[in-house]
Write the structure tokens for this entry.
Amino acid sequence: MEYLVLFVIGAMMGSFMGATAYRQVKKVPLFSKKRSFCDNCKTQINWYDNIPVFSYIFLSGRCRNCETQIPKRYFAIEIISGLCLALLPLSVNLVSNSNLWFSSLNTTALYILLTPLLLFSLYQFYFDSLYMYLSDFASFAMFLIGFVALSYFPNDVIWLNLFTSFVMASVFLLLHLLTSGKGMGLGDVKLALFPPLFLSTNISILWLFLSFVIGALYGLPFLLSGKKKMTAKIAFGPFMIVSFWICLVYGDKIFSILFPYL
Ligand SMILES: [Zn+2]
């Protein structure tokens, strides 16, 4: 039952984030009185046709007025957000059993720390994969969450983690400069600042490595099928986000499998 509640909340957040990203890109005021409208016929969408997940299924993915197909990505955003939030208790449980510097925090503190981090992660994931754009505000917020947590809870890793954060951002800045902005954007550089605050230095290196592995695994089928060229731009932020959450939850285990003698 609690998983269902979390799924529903997640789907609603996903729906909101999809709309927010859309409005930011199309320069529609975020909190305008205008309700969401159909992209094709511009008809306002009734509240009962704007219920996450359910409405899409009920309308078979079409606008009630003009019957144009509603992009599947909106449905995907709601499902993914719902699932991620439903999986949050599992993540909190795994984090509390790992060796991260904040693992010893009680469950409530872990939820306070990880829930906003997850929501900002989802937002960056959608924003970048839909529009090839990362939000500076979200990147800064994620860094701030890590920084505040590091300075608030007694620990001795703050300087090391800040240093690693700086090094990781420098790696992305170097890639940005070497590819003259084509490989990595400045958005990726800013996004790279937050993961090392949460992960140890070892796991941060794993995070960097895994981001590229996931990116390659994602890009390979496109390259092989000839659908995308080697020079095609692929948003890198989503891979950094996915890699971060894998490292946060399973980093210890993956690291000990890859380097059993370290
Ligand atoms: Zn329509």
